[in-house]
Amino acid sequence: MADTEYLDQFEKILEDGLVKICTTAGLLKDGMMSSPDIDEAWENLYLKDYVADAVENYGEYPEAAIAWAAFLGMSVASSWDRDWAAHDKDPYQMHYGRRGFDDMDEHVMYDILGLDADKAKYLSDCIQSCAQATLTLIRHEHVQPLTSDEFYVLVRCYGVMFRIGAAVELDRLGYRKMALTQSKYTN
């Protein structure tokens, strides 16, 4: 499926729906936020490795394969806020937990973001709701499993979830949409 127009439309519908879920949950107060630095990190550093992990896990754990992209986005956004010059080339595996991909969510929430158990549970529940909504949209679109169509749709889903996670973390850190239009390297 190289139908870019369809994929773009699917991605927009998905992103709009997930923004609504996160806004309703109080995780996004200013809508979808992004930073060119974070977006470029996804494209240039993390996309390929994440997709490899997610594809391997999707059959048995579809929600986790989708949801973990949001936790990766949160981790990258946190690094962007702390010291991007020191973290802009962090390898993908740095975001793994002790069990690798399997516990990336817990590693990000507890070790990187430093959330307490209640906040971590609330965040995790919201991200799981986003993953479930993503799977529902995929089913609604009648995307055939184990096809190239499904692969392209899932790659778009992972990207949206990554951006949602980054936006949620940027919001948690107090950023607002107007402040994020430039790279940290731009004067």
Description:
The protein has 187 residues and is mainly alpha-helical. It is built from six helices and no strands. The mean pLDDT is 90.
Key terms:
187 residues, 0% strand, 68% helix, mainly alpha
Shape call: globular
Assess the beta-strand content as a share of residues.
Answer: under 5%
Bin the helical content. 55-70%
Distance between the termini: 40 Å
- How would you characterize the largest beta sheet? none
Low-confidence stretches: none
Give the secondary structure arrangement, pairings included:
Layout: H1 4-24, H2 36-58, H3 62-87, H4 104-112, H5 117-140, H6 148-172
Helix pairs in contact: 1-5, 1-6, 2-3, 2-6, 3-4, 3-5, 3-6, 5-6
Task: Please give a quick description of this structure.
With 187 residues, this protein is an all-alpha fold. Helix content is 68%, strand content 0%. It starts with a helix and ends in a 15-residue tail after the last helix.
